[in-house]
Amino acid sequence: MPYDSDTHKSKPVHCLQCGAPIYFGRQGKKFCCLHCKNRYHNERAYPNRSLPVGRILHILDSNRCILVKLMNMGIRTMDLPTLIHLGFDPIYVTSFRKEGIRSVYTCFDVQYELTPSRIKRISFLGGGVMGEKMRPVSKLPFSSGDL
Known about the structure:
Blueprint: E1 13-14, E2 21-22, H1 34-45, H2 53-72, E3 78-79, H3 80-85, E4 95-99, E5 102-107, E6 110-114, E7 118-124
Antiparallel strand pairs: 1-2, 3-7, 4-5, 5-6, 6-7
């Protein structure tokens, strides 16, 4: 007896994760692909894991590395657009405080003053200066010749 596809057609099932219709596969299939299946089960098992904590920590670490590299080169002030071009993201900080009219930001152990157009007074918390031994940082996508 030949297979008649018209008699076995049924209403398509939809993926539990993305909602895409599933037209092929076994009869009880619930997901359109392996990616949706894994994502569905991970979100149910770890509901708070979807927070972008890892991405934020990566941005903060990158910001710190850029600031330390500038300090190691003896640079304590820089135009904000140039710093952003180097990969710095001024939105991400670990703390903020007002000292009179100054706005002082910190990124882990590095503090700086931020104005609308410049970043200045870059230093380690506790007043670390150029003469002190600086902590090593990872390679950055720029050198002192780029500044």
